[in-house]
Amino acid sequence: EPEVTQTPSHQVTQMGQEVILRCVPISNHLYFYWYRQILGQKVEFLVSFYNNEISEKSEIFDDQFSVERPDGSNFTLKIRSTKLEDSAMYFCASRNRQGASGTEAFFGQGTRLTVV
Amino acid sequence: GDSVTQMEGPVTLSEEAFLTINCTYTATGYPSLFWYVQYPGEGLQLLLKATKADDKGSNKGFEATYRKETTSFHLEKGSVQVSDSAVYFCALTIFGNEKLTFGTGTRLTIIP
Description:
The structure holds two protein chains of two kinds.
Chain A: E1 5-7, E2 10-13, E3 19-24, E4 31-37, E5 43-50, E6 53-57, E7 65-68, E8 75-79, E9 88-95, E10 106-107, E11 111-115
Parallel strand pairs in A: 2-11
Antiparallel strand pairs in A: 1-3, 3-8, 4-5, 4-9, 5-6, 7-8, 9-10, 9-11
Chain B: E1 3-6, E2 11-14, E3 19-21, E4 23-26, E5 31-38, E6 44-50, E7 56-59, E8 62-65, E9 75-77, E10 86-94, E11 101-102, E12 106-111
Parallel strand pairs in B: 2-12
Antiparallel strand pairs in B: 1-4, 3-9, 5-6, 5-10, 7-8, 8-9, 10-11, 10-12
């Protein structure tokens, strides 16, 4: 069964360092997303990506964040200069068509980012 | 804005007990409602969904009914199993909008 794959499963980084979280969406999907969950809080939408550009982003997704689909298979989230408050579980998701009523998004298993 | 409020966890039940996890929502438009589940070490998986009022979503013995009058989508199962131990997330999307709005998740542990 096709699945969304995220690497690494856990990343520890020092404050101020750049990190890249990687995702391989399902191959025929066209819409890609990043979400995050700070421990004990809600899963929050960060950004959606379609046709090689950002289609929507939340207020969390500031200039420190960027996304890229460099090679047609990977979908990456970069944080340029990590802060302690970036520590969270980051989920990648993909969908094969736009979010019409009830369309399912498929999620990866998440990357736990710990900033120290 | 749109929001989802779900029952605080963790919830611990004995096998074969009845399960209810409450979920209520606030939405600016007409939402579709979802329950996602995350088993240990895995990603979020869609458990069930409902796209209009009074619809009942069901899967693996779980059910939830879209109640517009009470803005609720409570998850129920008549007899839980140890394998149901997971984190359950209630979520919504608004038609024409791409993003999911999630609740905080409820960790469910079933003991034999």
